[in-house]
Amino acid sequence: METTRPAESRVIGLVEGILGRARTEALVAAVEIDAALLRAPSETVSRAELAQALNLLLFDDLLRRVPAGALYVLDRVRRGEKVVHDHGAVRTVLGETGALPAGERALTRVLAPLGYEVGEVYPLDRLGMTGRAWRHRDFPESIAQFFVSELHVDRFSPRFAKSAERVFGASRDPLPAATLAGLEELSAAGELPAETARRILPDLAGAFDRAHRVPALADYERLLEESAEAAWIATEGNAFNHATDRVADVAALSAEELALGRPMKDRVEVSASGRVLQTAYRAAPVERPFVGPEGALVLRPVPGSFFEFITRHRHADGRLDLGFDTSNAQAIFQMTAPVLA
């Protein structure tokens, strides 16, 4: 398969500066990138190019944490195919979050300067959350969307709220002043000097991580009693909850993956319109530290992130349906619910 070498592209050069050549070339071989984003290096980097570079970094990070997803992507590459990264999902807490801006603002202050805007809003009332689909203005079909959800602490019990404040209330801000200034410049100009883009990209990727301290086990368990999603954020923070491959026939893919014994959910979710179909692997189990009753760190197995699959059909006028579906989303979110023995 012919690929563009990192030195020949601003986008891939940015990624190589963080991941190194070997890892970057593996990503290029695995992920479809719009040819318009693979322009030769120059003195400036556009907002779309920086957005694509960030997406590649976050996709790579998720594959490191989700072995089943990494194996799936490797299978695609071995068949001479590429993944079409449709969207990544992140979760935020709308409540007391210390130095970190509350709710989706923790991340949308990064996304908006990169050229993203809200496409649609999705009430996730069964989960006490609201989801928003952030689409890229310049490349809405070929740069991955972000599905950003906010968990509304005030929709839960006072006991829950106290634990949430202890877990999230002293969060740090991962974006230094110089990076925030760079984002302001990007928002105004739509591009940045290449050196500025190289400098701030690691911080932008770092915003998609856990910004709070190791939670107390008692607080984690209290959050889990009312919200598996809040408990997930307590251990994983604002990292990619999942990344998604856009495929031609998700139902056929699901049958193939189940036959291979992969950890696929049993049912394909179909939107009310019938145009958006989704399924997913179950979350990868991970071990995370907690502060135990005596103050010592203890490790516990918890649900990590997962990999999703989506088929998008077109509207009657030929536009690709880039929407989501509230029912689908709430079902997909169950992939990170703990499996009780």
Low-confidence stretches: none
Number of strands: 12
The first-to-last residue Cα distance is 45 Å
Number of domains: 1
CATH class: Alpha Beta
CATH-defined topology: 2,3-Dihydroxybiphenyl 1,2-Dioxygenase, domain 1
Mean pLDDT: 95
Give me the strand/helix succession: HHEHHEHEEEHHEHHHEHEEEEEH
Percent of residues in helical segments?
25-40%
What's the helix count? 12
Structure characterization notes:
This protein has 341 residues and is of the alpha+beta class. The chain has a single domain (6-336), classed as 2,3-Dihydroxybiphenyl 1,2-Dioxygenase, domain 1. It has helices at residues 10-19, 21-30, 47-65, 67-78, 105-111, 158-168, 177-189, 194-206, 217-226, 228-236, 250-259, 326-333; strands at 44-46, 85-94, 116-124, 129-136, 145-152, 191-193, 242-246, 269-270, 276-280, 285-291, 297-303, 306-312. The strands form three sheets. It has an eight-stranded mixed beta sheet with strand order 3-4-5-2-7-12-9-8, sandwiched between helices. A two-stranded antiparallel sheet has the order 1-6. Helix 1 (10-19) crosses helix 2 (21-30) and helix 1 packs across helix 8 (194-206). The longest helix is centred in the first third of the chain and has 19 residues, at 47-65. The chain starts with 9 loop residues before the first helix and ends in an 8-residue tail after the last helix.
